[in-house]
Amino acid sequence: MSMLRGFLVLTVFFIAGEALRVLLALPVSGGVIGMILLTFLLMARGSISDSLAGASQALISVLVLLIMPGVVGVFFVADEFSGQWLAIGIALVVGTLLSVFTTLWLMQRFSAQEAGDHE
Amino acid sequence: MNELSGRFQELLDLLSTSPALAIVLTLGAYFAGNRLFRLLNQPVWLPPIVISATLVSGVIAVLALDYGDYREGAQWFSVLLGPATVALGVPLYQQMHHIRAMWRPIVVTLPIAATMAAVYAVVIAWSLGATPEVLASLAPKSVTAPIAIGITEQLGGSVPLMMGGLLITGVVATLFVDLLARLLPVKDERILGFALGLNGHAVGTARAFEISHTAGAFASLGMGLTGVFTAIFLPLVFHL
């Protein structure tokens, strides 16, 4: 029961996010706007109810399940881009290697600097 | 015999018009995928989602079901993606003290890394002769699915191709974070989590929650910020 209460809160924030997205013509999805709203509200309140924490935990733990239907679609567009799979594959793999390296390198460099400032 | 196959066809028609079959298929493949993943000693290069999605596709192909019908039935899950995205605000809030301590590296890294995540892939694909439609589908490859769908539609890309690129990116980002964490080396799980979320969206975030709650919170942060940043930045740049 209490988890459903948390789910209600999450869905209300999702709808609020969708409403803001449509009304203000924002290019960001309703889910993300709702997430930002929820984070700020929780920060302002300084506490979180057990039901909301429980419902969030439950949904996050099945995130992979929720994106699965979209993922299955990959197998059904294979023919459409037949000549380009090599380019797509290389771009994804090499591009991701480079961007992961960029992220780790920047984060480490600037967080080391941060630690240095405090010492 | 003929009569029986006619009835079998009738049964398939009935099942494919109700969401129950899609739900059974998706949930069944989800559990089977997780189980196989554990049986194979949890290979990093083959996350459960790939196993599960392959199983679903296999069943759809074998039973000659229509992917569109499956997708419609499986909407039950896709609908929950919205509230699940909102739910990511909770670990963000719970880990806010960690995030405050790291705000400077985050502010520096985010715009550069999120931009480069798109630029590397687009430039490489372009130099190898990919069409504009493919480029538009690859650009949001590091963005979480619900936001990426919106971006791809705005840029004129193909949503299924984008979803494929998204998945591959999530998987290889998870691999490369593990690999580079050892090579560089990076041990701070906050940095690893952030890199997982920024580059590998939901797949990376799921992996980060396996490392620790803190890594997961940083992954949610990385994923959320990348989504917001890319959603605003990409449509502006792409039209230049």
TrEMBL record, chain A:
It comes from the Bacteria. Its main location: membrane. It is found in: Cell membrane. The chain crosses the membrane at residues 31-48, 60-78, 84-106. It is a multi-pass membrane protein. Pfam families: LrgA (PF03788). This is CidA/LrgA family protein.
From TrEMBL, chain B:
It is a multi-pass membrane protein. The chain crosses the membrane at residues 12-32, 44-64, 76-94, 106-128, 161-184, 215-238. PANTHER family: PLASTIDAL GLYCOLATE_GLYCERATE TRANSLOCATOR 1, CHLOROPLASTIC (PTHR30249:SF0), PUTATIVE SEROTONIN TRANSPORTER (PTHR30249). The keyword Coiled coil does not apply. It is found in: Membrane. Keywords: Membrane, Transmembrane, Transmembrane helix. This is LrgB family protein. It comes from the Bacteria. Pfam families: LrgB (PF04172). InterPro entries: CidB/LrgB (IPR007300). The keyword Membrane applies. It comes from Marinobacter iranensis.
